[in-house]
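Lecture 7, part B: from sequences to assemblies.

Below are the input chains for today's worked example.
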Amino acid sequence: MQLALRDDLDTYLIAPDPGRATLTRMVKGHDQTGAEMDLSVVEERPLTIYLNSREIVTAMTIGDYPEYLAIGFLRNQGMLADSDRLTGVDYDDELDVVVVRTADVTDHEEKLQKKTRTSGCAVGTVFGDMMEGLDGLTLPQTQVRTSWLYALSAKINRTPSLYLEAGAIHGTVLCHEDRPLVYMEDVGRHNAVDKIAGWMFQSQTAAEDKILYTTGRLTSEMVIKTAMMGIPILASRSGFTAWGVEIARQVGLTLIGRMRGQRFICLSGETRLVRDADPAQQGDDPKAARRKGATA
Amino acid sequence: MQLALRDDLDTYLIAPDPGRATLTRMVKGHDQTGAEMDLSVVEERPLTIYLNSREIVTAMTIGDYPEYLAIGFLRNQGMLADSDRLTGVDYDDELDVVVVRTADVTDHEEKLQKKTRTSGCAVGTVFGDMMEGLDGLTLPQTQVRTSWLYALSAKINRTPSLYLEAGAIHGTVLCHEDRPLVYMEDVGRHNAVDKIAGWMFQSQTAAEDKILYTTGRLTSEMVIKTAMMGIPILASRSGFTAWGVEIARQVGLTLIGRMRGQRFICLSGETRLVRDADPAQQGDDPKAARRKGATA
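Predicted structure of the full complex, as structure tokens:
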């Protein structure tokens, strides 16, 4: 397989670091013939997130960028507003704990107490609260060129990553036009998105001209999360659910699914799509990026 | 593609019902050439689960078997013990609510209150409580023949399913020897497992001679859930995390990953594997079952 050219990698502000020792572990197994083999397998460890003095959640994560994960999780659950000022983010790698401190404590404690009592959790997010924020939300009518989508897909698929190294992981990439900027990976696709949200919060990055690319499915939760982050375009290699499509249309999010090789399907925002690329000129995905099940 | 023979389907107690109208919806999209197309897309709807008078969770689900999902969720979260007697399970399809009623209420209300206060939620499950139940758990040393694994994989891959019909969905199958018994699908892989747990609870099915097959990744949570259900063998088409492997070894769960065509990797329980099949005699997976991303 042809990996990314140096130029492609240089466009990243944060690229995956598959060689980092703490993210994978060698594990012994036996193949179908009974032969012993050594495998590079992704790590997964608990990270407990505190907002000021309150324990919020324990997430299972590969363990990189714990600060971004914590900030992004709190931001995406509505426990941290864009106007909130952080006074500290402390990560203790022995206790696997991150404490996010805000200047204004009391407000959040109250909001939070209410949330923790009334909302349940399932399939990755605090559901009740997520739908709440959608009322009246309309995303900017940002156009997207199909040439950008093809270029992003080709670059991302060729970027050395934990997925290519060890599989069993999801990737999410924040992009601007045809340039991938921040590529986060994690065992749960929601964690990868939350790390992006944390990075955007800390760097005060504008959302209205960005594209979010994910390897995961476009479920209602993924669509809601992207919309709440203010990002107007969401693209994925994977499929989609009917409700994900419905919500995307409701908030004016451009939704692209099953993006592989020259193929893709636009489920929402067709009028904002600038079809400037000839699909027939696009190459196939590299074989390694097509490995079924590695992210299933 | 060759679908299952009548004989294969007859072995199921519950098989997928991809033709059921409520599980999919026709959605319009545009392909890469701009051509309009109609797609069959899986539904996703909220289901709120009550235990007696208490609201527990709102889960996103395709919507089939809501009663099994509710019972299985409560069982797998430790809110329902095998010894509990159910006095009613009421599903209201207009309100999207299931109420599970138990004979003995007070006990659970107290346990639950404590749980709701102290545990957070992330990547699909109430984490703190799940690890708790593992202390001292050892699964029965059930042997598994590789001929069964190959036969199961071939039958399941050829079974007409929502996955083959619409993609973007996970499947989990409860099996006995080479026979698939109950095949559940859902947008979240945890829901599919919970529906199996609900069916086992209601039918009082023994776990110690069963095999659980899943299309999803073998993360710590999936391994813990299977172990807590008492099922000693877990197999998947997909990859695995280091901690998933570690927990499987700790509780004596036989763990098989990356099971595709003739290939598989045994990560735990090699000594309980009876290698009675010749890998070279096994065929490839049908092409439709290999579609990358449909479940990613």
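Note for the exam: Residues 6-21+139-290 of chain B form a domain with the Cytidine Deaminase; domain 2 fold (CATH 3.40.140.10). Keep this in mind when comparing with the next example.
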